[in-house]
Design goal:
By secondary structure, the protein is α+β, with helices and mostly antiparallel strands. Helix content is 25%, strand content 33%.
Length: 150
């Protein structure tokens, strides 16, 4: 490993990503994942529940949130030839789906670096997803491992 490699970020570096969850997003995710649970697809069923409407897949929300990690890497792409990937044994930790995400919700994702370890070449980022009303719907910690070019 290149001992001269320095992680090109500072503590507190933050990226953002925003996306509105559409009905087609949910249906395409259901088709790709095979998760055809009626809470995602059956409007009539959900109208009869305490929630009252269909909800997006938690993993769709998580997938949208991961775009903020990509933006983090893209922000310094020109400065490094090194690969940064979700750390193999952990990647995302402490993932919590706090509130449901509904069709039409706009998700605002922030990814803030909370720890940088030059010795292990790892960073930890706090991923927070809020809806258009400022309600936190998902949180996670993300371990990113950098592999310097050899």
């Amino acid at each position: 490993m290149d001992n001269n490699f320095k992680i090109p970020y500072e503590l507190g570096f933050t990226t953002h990503f925003e996306k509105t969850v559409s009905e087609s997003d949910v249906y395409m995710f259901a088709g790709i994942s095979g998760d055809m649970n009626r809470v995602h697809l059956n409007d009539q069923y959900m109208k009869g529940t305490a929630i009252g409407e269909r909800v997006a897949h938690g993993m769709l929300t998580f997938s949208i949130a991961s775009a903020a990690e990509t933006k983090l890497l893209d922000a310094k792409f020109q400065e490094m030839e090194d690969a940064g990937i979700s750390y193999l044994s952990a990647g995302y930790e402490h993932v919590r789906f706090i509130k449901p995400v509904f069709f039409g919700d706009t998700l605002n994702v922030s990814y803030e670096l909370t720890d940088i370890n030059e010795e292990t070449k790892k960073t930890i980022g706090r991923l927070t997803v809020v809806n258009q009303n400022g309600v936190v719907v998902m949180v996670a910690d993300h371990i990113l491992k950098f592999f310097p070019k050899q």
